[in-house]
């Protein structure tokens, strides 16, 4: 295992993903994790992430000293390098000139940069193009260290103590803008830490199946299937492990997309022969949502209804002992929460939390250690359809938060059809893969139009398409006008009740991705 200590950089999860991509298992923990935990984990190498703090202040977050005493290689990135310098006897200062963006570095021969360079300068020096983003910098090296990369603005752009195998990089190897970043990370984990290539999907499936069987024995497992990627992959994996001991409950809340319920049943019940109980509760949800206009109250109502229905079904399944959930690694990291992480929740995201206690079931979470891209890879390896595995995220409350104000069946139907046209055209044009999330929103306001010779007075559909890495910030997608024109035409012509289509050009922040 490679241990990554998180000092709160927005790129920390990227470090973990890059390491996993080199087929090495790694874990990410807050920088202030218990030293005993680190000792017990016995990592073969440690990475200190970047972070927003200043290493030269009194109360700056520090790496647990044990990290430097384990006798294993340590790589400090950005703040991680500064904290390493500060703790090992060097000095950090506020740089006169901050550096953001591309920088060209001259590098020295060392184990970390072995066989790595972007080009050779006229004076025969190997050069590296890197992505910088820092205000502070190392000003004096700790004893034992030497410079392995520099330029005029940053004399200590990278440092190394090769006898102890400690390395510091002022730049970010984990972002794709640093072209040789992957090679540098590869060099650190394989050549310097001596990691093997033992993190791969086929082996992982075998191991996971073994673990699930050992965990549940011959007891029954219940899983709430939503049709989303995580719960679907969890279902496919558990089914592979224990077959009919798994019972899935699929609750149709009436707020799903066009034909979604049918697709879920076809994929799981028919094609994969998974035991799925299909509950059509759309009427019940709509009744409960009547007259409710406040977004948070809608979320709570939908969440509560779901729990109630799910619980009722679960109780009917005799001798079920386990509740399976599609929790993935980013969920685990977020709920572990170091205090460098931003705390406030902007919206109360509904999930099935709260279920386990009331049901007295044990929790089975087979995807707990996987990142989203690994979950997708696993899904494909388990034979799930490409469309399902690569679908955009869909919120738990579904169309409930995409119909502004009160939710009505009539509105949901209009939205479903408009949304289906939008998504179909995105897929046909190749834009579905180029956007992270796209959907239609129903606005319950009427505007005037003209259709044929008569005046129309009908509802508005807004289209939203965003590009984002992490859904915390997002840009609206610059869809081609010709594509928008085609979608607008189709929606207005094919969805009776809509006479106007608008495109949302707000970024997050200040807007959110969903409209409610
Ligand atoms: P926002 O609107 O907060 O959305 O920018 C960020 C991401 O979270 C999804 N989202 C939700 N997911 N329950 C969910 O399961 C919710 O209540 C919820 N609200 C937003 C949203 O679709 C986007 O991917």
Automatic annotation (TrEMBL):
Catalyzes the synthesis of GMP from XMP. CDD domains: GATase1_GMP_Synthase (cd01742), GMP_synthase_C (cd01997). This is GMP synthase [glutamine-hydrolyzing]. It catalyses: XMP + L-glutamine + ATP + H2O = GMP + L-glutamate + AMP + diphosphate + 2 H(+). Residues 199-391 form the GMPS ATP-PPase domain. Keywords: ATP-binding, Glutamine amidotransferase, GMP biosynthesis, Ligase, Nucleotide-binding, Purine biosynthesis. The keyword ATP-binding applies. The keyword Ligase applies. InterPro entries: Class_I_gatase-like, GATASE, GMP_synth_C, GMP_synth_GATase, GMP_synthase, GMPS_ATP_PPase_dom, NAD/GMP_synthase, Rossmann-like_a/b/a_fold. HAMAP family: GMP_synthase. Gene3D superfamilies: 3.30.300.10, 3.40.50.880, HUPs (3.40.50.620). GO terms for molecular function: ATP binding; GMP synthase activity. Its EC number is 6.3.5.2. The active site is at residues 78, 172, 174. ATP binds at residues 226-232.
